[in-house]
Design brief:
The chain is mainly beta. Helices cover about 10% and strands about 35% of the residues. It is built from 2 helices and 10 strands, in the order ββαββββββββα. Strands 4, 5, 6, 7, 8 and 9 form a 6-stranded antiparallel β-sheet that branches. Strands 1-2-3-10 form a 4-stranded mixed β-sheet. It is globular, with a radius of gyration of 17 Å. The chain starts with 10 loop residues before the first strand and ends with a helix. The relative contact order is 0.18.
Length: about 150
């Protein structure tokens, strides 16, 4: 969910390939200033997922806390009623703040990421519960190049 507009989208990752829904991707591009806020998602892209190779990284890289990260007690909070400790990792225009559960297993409950001035928040839940996640059907997956061609003809 976008912190700025409330736009909602989905993202998946498998075998080093990420899949981002059209609505989430256009919101991200707008926040990054790569396209104008007036640019609307064409109807033919509303149900598409854009695939991107993660450059040789495994999908688990999306859920790891940087080894150089440090505790930040000033940012400790609660996430969905659970007390957390904040762990901050920053480098240049990039910053991640992880909220990790204080009680029970030390799961990451939330991550707030800032990249070049755009911020996103990811909240995690359902740890230990069986979840049936299905990647989008192949007919709904397009490349970034195909997305750009249809977005900006």
């Amino acid at each position: 969910m976008s912190d700025k507009t409330g736009a909602v989208g989905e993202g998946f990752c498998r075998n080093g390939v990420s899949y981002t829904s059209g609505p989430l991707l256009i919101e991200s591009l707008q926040q990054a200033g790569k396209i104008g806020r007036d640019r609307k998602l064409p109807p033919q892209l509303a149900d598409k997922y854009v695939s991107s190779n993660m450059g040789g990284q495994d999908c688990s890289a999306l859920y790891k806390i940087d080894e150089q990260a440090t505790l930040d007690p000033t940012a400790d909070t609660t996430v969905e009623g659970k007390k957390t400790i904040a762990i901050r990792s920053a480098s240049g225009a990039t910053e991640d703040v992880y909220q990790v559960a204080v009680e029970g297993d030390p799961y990451i409950l939330q991550m707030k990421s800032t990249r070049d001035g755009r911020t996103s928040t990811t909240t995690y839940d359902s740890f230990g519960e069986k979840v049936d996640i299905k990647l989008p059907p192949i007919e709904q997956v397009i490349s970034m190049e195909q997305f750009r061609e249809q977005l900006i003809p």
